[in-house]
Structures are given as C-alpha cells and as structure tokens.
Amino acid sequence: MASVDYREAGHLPNLRPDGQPGPPAELPRQRNGVTPQMRGRYPKYNVLEQADHWDPVTREMVFERARTVPPIRFFTAPEALTLGIFCDLVLAQDSEPKIPVLNMVDAKLFAGELDGFRYAELPDDRETWRRVAVGLDAAARQHGAADFVNATEDVRERVVDALAKGTLHGEVWDTLEPAHVWKVVTRAMLSAFYSHPWAWNEIGFGGPAYPRGYARIGAGQRESWEGAEAFERDPVKDTEQRGDQEAARP
Amino acid sequence: MSRRHELRTLLRGAIRPPDNDSAFLLDVHRRAVPRERMERYDDSYPVDLLIVGAGAGGATLAQRLARRGWKVVVLESGPFWDPDEDWVSDEAGSHRLYWTEERIIGGSDPVELGKNNCGHGVGGSMVHYAGYCPRFHPSDFEVRTRDGVGEDWPISYEDLKPHYERLELELPVAGEYWPWGDPHRYPHTAHPIAGGADVAREGARKLGIEMRVGPVGITNGAFGNRPHCIYRGFCLQGCKVNAKASPLVTHIPDAIEHGAEIRADSMAMDIEIDGSSGRVTGVHYMNDGRERFQRAEAVAVAGYSIETPRLLLNSISRRFPHGLANNNDQVGRCVMVQGAPQVAGRFPDEMRMYKAPPPEISSEQFYETDERRGFARGFSIQTVGPLPIEHAQHVLGHGHWGQALREYMRDYNHWYTLGILSELLPLPDNRVTVVPSVTDANGIPVARMDYSQCENDRKNIAYAKQTLHNIFEAGGAQDVLATDRYAHLVGGCRMGSDPDQSVVDADHRAWEVPNLYIADGSVMPTQGSANPALTIMALASRLAERLDLKRDGARGERKRRRPRRPQRRPAPTRAGAG
To answer: Which of B356, B399, B417, B492 is most deeply buried (CB count within 10 A of its CB)?
Structure first.
C-alpha cells in the first residue's frame, strides 16, 4: 500500500499522469464520527463533538441537517432515481454512508428556495432540474443505452463529463446551454454536500466558530481541538507511527 | 507631519467619531440594534425624505440627515436583522442574507447575482461583504481624461476625501499605512494575518509586488460596544460578533436615535409622481401583505444597481411612459461589475484558510494604467478565504468533478486563495431592464441584467489572473487551481454633467425630476478596482451635506431641528470610549 506524506502534493489529480486521484479505497478509514464513505484525511476528527462551543441557533441548524433525510417531494420517483445516480457520480459517493444530496436539493426546490437569478435561456432552477433528468436519458441514448439509469458506468461518466465540458447536444440540450445547466445543478449539489458535517469531518474543516473563534491562525498551526492529518494511508501503520495507542488497540 | 496628524496617529482607535454614536448605542449583552424607542411616522405624513433601501447608501444618508433634524423614513424590503437569532455561523444557512427573488441574467458574459453581490434586509449587502474598505484613487474620477476610456465623474476625489476620512473613523477601518492612490493612514491598526496570507505576501515580495495588511472595516480592539474580532472567518455570512462594519451597526443605531424610522419588510413597488408639478409625492410599497403609500417631500432611491433601475423602470406615468426619470433612455445603462478571478495555491503546511477574516492583505500596485500591459486601467489583488462550499465551487470551476473534486476538497486545509478585482469598463448595452412577462409575488415585473465584456476587459482579467499564478509560483505553491467569477455591482443610474448621458447630476438629483435622488452605488460612472462599499457610503455622506445646504438655503436660515429627545449619554464602557 502506498505511503503518503501530505506535505507532498503527489496525490493531487493535476500532478498525476491520468489526472485522477489514487483509488479512494486506500484512504484512511474514519475512526471517529462519520464521513461520506467513511474515508477521510482526519480519521480522529469529529466536528460534531465541538457542538457545545457553538451558538444555539447554529447548533440546532447543523444538527437538524445531520440527522434528517428529507423525503423526496419535489421530484417524481423516476426523476429521483436518475438524478440520484447523477448526484452520486458528480460527488463520487460510491458507497454508504452517503450524504443525502438529492434529498437536500429536493427539499430546497420543494420549498421554492431559489438563488436570486436565472440564466436568460433557462427556466427557473426547479424546471431546469427536471429537464436535466430528461436530458441525461437523451444523452445516454446517444451512446446506445436505454436511458441513464440503465447505462453502463462508462457511459454515465461520459455523459456527465460532456455536461461538465459543455459539449452535450441534441434534443433537450439544443434548448439548454449545458455550461449554464452544469453551474445550476452543481451549485445546488455542492451547497448540500459541503454544508453537511460529515463532509466537514472528511476535509478537516473547523465548522461553526461562534462564539469561540480562532487563536492559532499561522501556517501549520491548529487549535487544540482541531483534527490532525493522517500521514499514512494504512490505518494500522498510521496509528502506530503516531504513538496513538488508544486508536491502535484492537 | 502636522501636530494634529501626529496626535491622531498616536491616539488611533481611541478617537471617537464626533457625530455618530452608533457603536455606543448598541447593547453590550446582545447584538440586535435597540429600537424600542424608534420613531414611527404615519403613511399620510409627508416626511422630509423617504429613502428606499437600508444599505450602504440609504442608511448613511438617513443617519446624516436625521442628525440634521430631517424627518426620515427608510423603506427596506428585507427584515430588521437580529444577529443573535437570525444569523448562523454556517455557509448554507446564510441563504436568507441574499436577494433571492427571481432575476434574469443574459448577455455573452452573464453575471451571477444572489449571494455573490446582492443583499436583503437592514444593512444591505454590507451585511455579507468581506469587509474590504479601500478608497477610490483620484484617477478614478477622471478616467476619460487620463486614459481615454470609461467616463469622467462630475465630482472629484477631493469632494469625497473628507467623507472617506469621516467614514473610516466611523466603521472603523483597520490597516497599515496606505501608499497607493492618495496616501493615507487608518484609525485602527492592522490585524494579524493568517499563514496563507503571509506566504502569499512573501511570494508577491519576491516578484517586486508589495502587499499591505488591510484595509478592512473590522474593529481591532473594542470600539464602543462593538467587540474585537474573533477571527472566525465567517465575514460573508453576517458578523454575529458585531466586529465587522455594516450600516446595521455603524449608522442605523444613530439614525434611530435621532428620529429616523427604519421600516423593514417593506417592498417599494412604485414611485408616484404628480402629473402637473412633475414632482414625486411618495412611494407605494407592500408591507405585511398590504399595499400602502408613504407620502414624502422628496424621495431618495438606494436599492443598488439592480433594484434602483427596476423601481424607476416600473414607475410608469403619463409623463414618464418608459419609467421614471428615463425619458433620455439612460436608466439601467452602464451597469458594471469587477472581474474577480480567483487562484488558489497548494502548500506543504496546513493553511486552514477558513480562519481569520477573508479580507487580509491587498495590493493596489496594478491599479493605474500601464501601457506596457496592453490595456487601459488596472486591477487590485486581495485575499479571499473561501469556506468549503465556496472552495468546492472553485475546484469545480477549474474543471474537476467526481473523485478528483473530492480529493482536492480533502486537501482543503493546504490551500490558500487570492482574488482579483479588475476594473471593467462601463458599456451602454450592459443594462438592467424589466421583463413585463415575468413578475414577482406582488405582480411587479422582475429585473433582467445583460452583461458582456469588451476586449479591454478580457485582457485585464487574463493579465491579472496570470499575476496571481506568478505570485503563488514564487511563493512555492505545489499546485494551483483557477476559476473565473465577478464581484460587486455599480452603475445603472450614473451621475454626470450631461443630461443626455446620465440619470442624475453631481448632487444625485434626477435630471428629469426635481425632488428625486439616487443614493447608492448605481450613480457611479466607473468603478475602479476598489471594493465599492466605502465609496457608496462616502457618496451618501456627501449627498446629505449637499441636501442639507440646499434646504437651509431655500429657507433662508440655518435652522437646525433639535433631536426629538435629549440625546442619551452613552453608558461608560471600559475600553473604546477613549
């Protein structure tokens, strides 16, 4: 198993020959709290343990977000199936536990919470999302699949990549500008995913910070309660090297 | 250096603004603005000035005129915020701070609105601005004369300078000695900076680019009943601490104390004009599901660059069939944004850029035209400090999704981000219009903003972006990610000296309507590469002075109304009272 020193940057996609990261299965397992897919860079860090230091309004909001999976009320069942796979692909959620991104997006659209603008050639975000479901099927059919849900992993990835690059065309995509659609859907997805405390655990983000604030703001510094980075992808070696006896104990 | 200057330098934060007690009127134990004793005016009472919008322009204007005894009402479409109850230390949860009603964006380079540049509620978009408070440069007021592009202002830097100085004391602004533009000092000393800013500054230094700490509207030390900053990094989500300046804490308390009414949750729909006199008589607005009409002797619109043109264009009358003050077809034109590409750099040490205020250091070394760069005007360099959602959008904007996106996000703590503000030029076809077929909940047509860049704009942005790449490279970054975006809004109802080419005159008065004023960033003919907040406030502060002079002149005497009640002595505080 490859050893990784995060002072080096060789793990970053731009610096790797294929432009992709190493296999996510080699990442450290989360040992405290939850991260999406239970992998992360900060195996012992659980931001929710800091909740006593948050103001009550923020605390209530974040806990509500962490414990609820909003029911699908805006999308139809077939739409939800297609778009759920789409969201998982864009956010690389390939196994449980998953942040319920589509449910969170659905709740926002159902409540009519929009972002204050829409591109002139697009309908409002609610209708845009529905058309994306139709458009993903159309694009999958161009690759010979019955629809997006029944397409192979390879076809799905090619469809999403074309959407990201703005190169989809035909049917729905002749009336929707793919580059703008990509911005609309990813804005909602990223806002859902990276608002979730599980994602904060994964990336080592400090989370809500009022009223405590921060005292150690220099390079390489962290607060006493902030998570330490794993420096070895093998959890056993990692804990041994850190002298972390408690975590190393079977 | 003069003795006065020397003394000011020594006293720094101990100097109290002479005519604004806002910081002392706030409560020590809660963040909400005390308004139990706020004056209430009847709709039928013709107030001296009715202001639409309680942001940087409207709130400053209200405070200044209320102090001079004017009876002022401010209509604000959004809520009167209570930072303790309404705001959260959370990115996604701050959605309510933005203007989220429908608007349409078009043109070849559409500008995303909402959280990017549009506020809602008392305090306006300064509630969620980063906090940078630079002045404009003297050159900004004469770019046509100097550089042959854009437009000259009908006023000069010297007209705004006393107001800049006054506002820097009121916000207060913290920063190092400022060598660019008209060199000046700041009342509060510079804040400490985080590791990322230090690395960026060092990278810049190696290239001969100087970066200085500040200028930010964030208290460094207690200021009245506003506490010290706690470096929690959530400036863009509304400051729950009350350390960051926004009109909600810098001008609204004093305005209320002097008898202004801030009427929140009141959406202006239509300005009424008297057909025979050609004067405006008041504003129709929606409050609590009921349509109301506030009478006024004069109206000042301060709804910012989208809503101000929208309100004028939706105020149709026989005299103004194409919108109020728009018979010359100028309303909504020359709306501007700044090019704001961001470049993030990766470093061996953890930078944890979520800490410390996003605005830390900046450089105005590239602000002025340099012909060798191949374009007119320039840009400034600033720090950005994106939280996870914002940084994820940055990574995605660079072109990564799926596993690559997740991997870059797991690496979040090793990154630091710099941003650009490129001066983009005013173009008449960049315009705010209204769309009769699309209406809001009140049945009022929504705004559409069309935006396209010109060649000079593209060259400026590309050059500026390359400069950030160079800085990170010199600073030892192991990888960089870049993304394009825009920041800020100004223009749309510009001031000028030619009635055919502008909407208002040098005193913000509509050329076509004698008692209608515009008091926000939409009057700016150009936008420099400085963040506009301080200049919007300075313009409003100057406007108040001009209005008061005019009224006194008209009455033939300088008769000041006393404040409606004896002014409370602010409670003594341990620090800050000086």
So the answer is: B492
Phi, psi (5° rounding) for residue B383? -95, 160
> CB A92 to CB B402 under 8 A?
yes
Please list every residue in chain B whose beta carbon sits closer than 8 Å to the beta carbon of residue A219: 194-196, 198-199, 347, 349-351
pLDDT at B263 over 50: yes
B499-520 pLDDT, tens digit per residue, is 999 999 999 999 999 999 999 9
Q: Which residue of A has its CA nearest to B95?
A: A115
Instruction: Look at B443 and A232; give whichever has higher pLDDT.
Output: B443
Residues of B in contact with A211 (CB under 8 A): 230, 240-241
Q: For residue B92, what pLDDT is reported? A: 96
DSSP per residue, B444-506: PEEEEEE----HHHHHHHHHHHHHHHHHHHHTT-S-EEEE--EEEEE-SS-B-S-TTT-SB-T
The string of DSSP letters for B335-391 reads: -EEEE--EEEEE-SS---TTSS-S--EEE-TT-S-BGGGTBSS-EEEEE----HHHH
- Cross-chain Cβ contact B230/A208 below 8 Å: no
Compute the Cα dihedral for B23, B28, B32, B34 and give only its sign: negative
Could you say which DSSP state residue A29 is in? B
Inter-chain touch A12–B196, beta carbons under 8 Å = no
What ipTM was reported for this prediction? 0.94
In total, the C-beta contacts within 8 angstroms joining chain A to chain B are: 229
